[in-house]
Structure formats: C-alpha cells, structure tokens
C-alpha cells in the first residue's frame, strides 16, 4: 500500500506533527486511520472516502475535511426518480469502496418505489477480456439504466468498452458517481468521445473572485513544472487547500494558546499532537469550498450541493443541481443521452423472449407440443403471470432438438441459447447450480400410487351390512289370542311385531309376564341396536372407501417387487438410494402405461410426483390411490437465466398468487390440468367426508318402488273382490281370486 507506506515513513523518519492525505480506497482510509490513532497524529483527509463506520468512534485522529462519498446516494436516487425509472443496475468496483454505496442506494430507492435490480462487480485490475464479458452480461439485461460507481480510471475503461459494444447508443442511460465526475475533465478527447451522453455529478462550489484567483495562481504554479498539465477547477482542489489552511490555522491557534500559558520563547513552545488535534476540531473559517466546520468526530458538517453534469462534445456541461436543503433534482437543460438523443431512455427493455418447452410422450395436460401449437396448463399459467406483470415485449414458445431431456434444456438456458424454460420442470439441487428457478407453483413432494381395494359401500344391500349374523328372536305364548292361528300366521305376526317395535307402539296386549319381560328386554336391545346401526351405517357412508393394497415401501424392497417411475425423472435415482434394485425398476412414460402396468401386475407400485399422480387419479377414479409417506422434492417451477430480473419478478408475482386466499395458484393450476376442480375431484378418495349420492342406491330404490307398487295393486284388487261381487261374478273361475288372496297373505 504505497500511500500507507509513505505516511508511515513521514511519521517515523520526518517526525511530522500532522499529515494531509487523500486515500483512494476504503482499505487505505482504514489503514491511515489506524496509523494516525496508533501514533496519535492528526491525519487530515480531503477525500470523500471514510473509514469503516463501525470503527469511526475509535479513530479520533482521522479528520475528514471533505464531504462523505455516501452522501451522493440521495442525488443519484433523485436522478433515477426524476426520469421515473423503476429499476437500475449497479456496476461497481469489486472492493469495499465500490460496495459501500450499495446499502444506501438500496434503501433510498426502495423508499421511493424503485430498486437496484442487479449488482455487477468489476475487479479493480480487470483485464480487457474480463470487461468484454461484463459488457456481454450487461447487454443481455432487460434494464438499460446503469449506475457506475468506481474510481475514474476504471470507469473510463468501462465506458470505452461500452462504446465498443454499441451500448452508448439510443435507449441506454449511464449514471456515473462523483469519483468519475471529479476527474472527467482531465480525460483525453478520445476517451471523452466514447462516453457521450453519460450523466455524472460532482460537488458544487461557488466560483467567487477568491476561487478564481486561487485557480489562476495554482495553474501558473503547476505550469512552471509541466507545460502540458491542465486541471480545471474542482471541489477536490478546494478541499485540499482548505485542509492545509485548517492545519496551519490550528497550529497558530495552538501556539498562541501555549504562549499565553507558558513563559517560554515562541520557538520553544511545546505544541503536542493532541493539542493540534483539539485545535483543528475547533477551527472554523470561510474556505474556498465553503464554510469549514467539523463535528466532534472530525467530519465535515457543511451542507453539500451537487452539480449534475452531462458529458457532451469535448467535455461536460452542467444540466441540473441538487441540494441538501431542497433534496430534489432541478434540471434546467435538456440532457443529451447516448446516441445523441434527447428522448429519455425508457429504462427496462422489454425484449423478445425465447422460451423453450419440453416435449414429452405422456402427461401432455401439463405441456402439449404438437406440430401446430404448444398448449398445456404450464403454458396457461406462464401467460397469466406475464399478463399480470403487464410485460410489454413479445415471447415465443419453441421446441428444441433436445426438448425431451429436461436437463439439457436447463443447460441451454444457462448457456443463454434460450431465455426461459417453461413446463413441468422440477427444482433439483443440480439444476439450481447454473440457473434461476422461480418459486414452485405445484404441490411439493413425491410418493407412490398403488391399486386400491374397494369397500362394498356402493352395494344396494349396504343397509344390511351393520347387522351381525346372529339375530335375537323372541317367541310369545299361544295363550295370547292375538298370536293364535296357524304356525305360518304366528311367525308372520311375531316377525312383524319384533321389527315394528323399532318404529311405533302396538295395540296388542301381552298377557304373560314372561312375554312382557322378553318384550322389555327386546325393546331395550332394539334401542341399542338402532343406535349402533345408525352409527355403523353413517361410518360406512362417510369414511375412506379406497384402501391401498400396499402401504410400505420397505415391503416392496424386502419382497423384491417391481415398481415403476416416470421416464427421465429424478425419482429413479431416489428409489435406488432407498434400496430398490435396478432390475426391479420399470420406466413408464404415459398414463396409459401407468394404468396397464398396475392393472396387469407388472409393477406393484408407481413412484412419481404428486401432480402427476393426482392427474392419474382424476382420469381413473376409484381405481388407484396414493399411499405411504410423501418424500420431499422441489416442485414444478419456471427456469430463467441466473440473476435474471424478470425471473425475480415472475417469482414475486407467483408468490402473490400463492398467498392470495381467494386465488390459490397451486389449486387453480391443478384444476386446470384435471377435468374437474381439485377441490371436488375424487373427494371420496381424498380422506374428506363425501356427500351421500342417491345414485349409488338406484337399484335398491327401484326394487323398493316396484314392491310397494305391487303391494298397492294387490290390496286394490282384494278390495274390489270383497266390495263388488258383481265384478267377481263377471270373472270366470275362482282360481284367480284365490291366488290373489294367497299372495296378499304374505303382505
């Protein structure tokens, strides 16, 4: 560190009492602050770079006579907001100095509704080849507003490279911080020509007569050493002069103070470094840069204003101002933007997107690639998100020669052959290394699907299922005349009496105490039986009615059962990690293959992600069911190039849709892919309580209606037989009426 070594040599060898310096990096400022604190010597800096803020209170000997560089964050944000740019890219030096402004810019922009969409770091010693790569990266960004924060020499190289990459053309906006603005006038005409349209800023100074005389005298003095040296007036020179004046004034003040308190001669006055520091902090005067005044921590307190400069022609011109008293940009001249344009760049460039989609043989409900069109619920969802974003550019879905291999498509997005990958692409750790995934828009996880064993609850005879095989029967003594008659009549009366006790009371009078006891016990039993029957029948109608034939993956592994997985899925590797053997794994592609493999028993279970399995269940209801634990996976997501601002905005939009209680994206996405909404499809299979569907008992209702109608006809015919003898006489023979009477006896 050249500046640090020079400072240390001045302290040890020359034994100076104070040092005036201009650190160019944060590391130099930190080192000099530590050096001054260690040797107890005041170091006056006329650079805007301050030591690390956390250590400033422990470094009292570092005095900053220039305004802090971080103060320029506000005027920069004012420029962005003046032209209503929603976002900007920060191109900064890869050092503590370069990144130091990022928190301030981020906070200020977010408070105004804008943001830093991306940060590009440029090494201090970057080669031209590296800068070409930086330009290529910047050129492919949507945002065309760039804030450049680095030392002037590196910034000048950036602008020269940008000009070569045709990025100093219409539609681009470049804003450079004061480190560039302070030194832009010293650049050669060739460099200036390559950066026309750049907007920069530098601290404002009032060009008084005193300032004019100083610069004239300064220029004559410098010219005596170098005829070719030229330096226009700048705030940095004024800060340097004021720093020198401040230390001289402080030394004189300290000497007079010491003279008043001692009896020594003027040449023997003991002026210590501590006295000099105290005197500097108390020094105030009207300097060339404005009023010189420091706070108790040694920082310049003078409110700072900035001139907004526009690089044009062979130099710069002032087009606006910004002041701390009125923190808003005032533009009094039109800015000439890159490309010699007076039209304000729009900011984010809604470029046309190249979107690749996977082409698969099965599950085309998600993405269906045909010769004429590309459709599917993934396509519909992406269109909906882009509509929500109000994306102004065009985008085109296209297929690729490797579109059947999702991993290859992900790599092509990484290599910038495509901008976006849209489809049923699962987030995995390997794929995340080089690309950006949005938040997942489907249910997360994978599990197994097996054949379901059906309960017989849909049978029309379900009403008799709650009964047990053993029934309680009661007999009644024949002394009761109501129960007298033939054995067949006694059985009918007793059977009718027993079952009717569940519904209504009877007029029959029981004469035997034993019979009464039996009836009491029976009625109590009927109460319990009726309650149990109701509960059991309700349970049979409302509980899960599809039971998996296999519930444990360990059983499949232990018994060496063959299992299936979707072709090309990451599930295969996960199954092998679980312990499944390669010969027992079957690759399947379509829903028809899933159905065929499970139906004929060629696989005992199929492992796949939940969205695919739910789709199978919706198409083949009550045939298969999911079982076993749900294993974690990333879910489906859209794929963008790494660091894509559009990818972040798509994620934010998806997240808002997911968080909306009225518009759950995961539910609506699955609903689009299934024939019926996910909230109602396979309700009986989902574990929820389904509603009773009378169509399930259509057979029982038909039989009951038929029997009731037949009974009504028989009773009507019997009534006619008894009440209208003339009709009976008109019917030849008595056999028909006798048969009718015999049938009626059963009812």
Based on secondary structure, the structural category is alpha/beta
Biggest sheet, spatial arrangement of strands: 5-4-6-7-8-11-12-13
| Whole-number tally of structural domains | 6
- So what's the overall shape? elongated
**CATH level 4 superfamily of the largest domain:** Response regulator
Helix content: 40-55%
Largest sheet: 8 strands, mixed
Number of strands: 26
Terminal residue distance? 114 Å
- As for the CATH topology of the largest domain, it is Rossmann fold
Count the DSSP helices. Answer: 25
Unreliable stretches (pLDDT < 50, length at least 5) are: 471-478, 675-701
Radius of gyration: 45 Å
Query: What's the CATH class of the largest domain, please?
Result: Alpha Beta
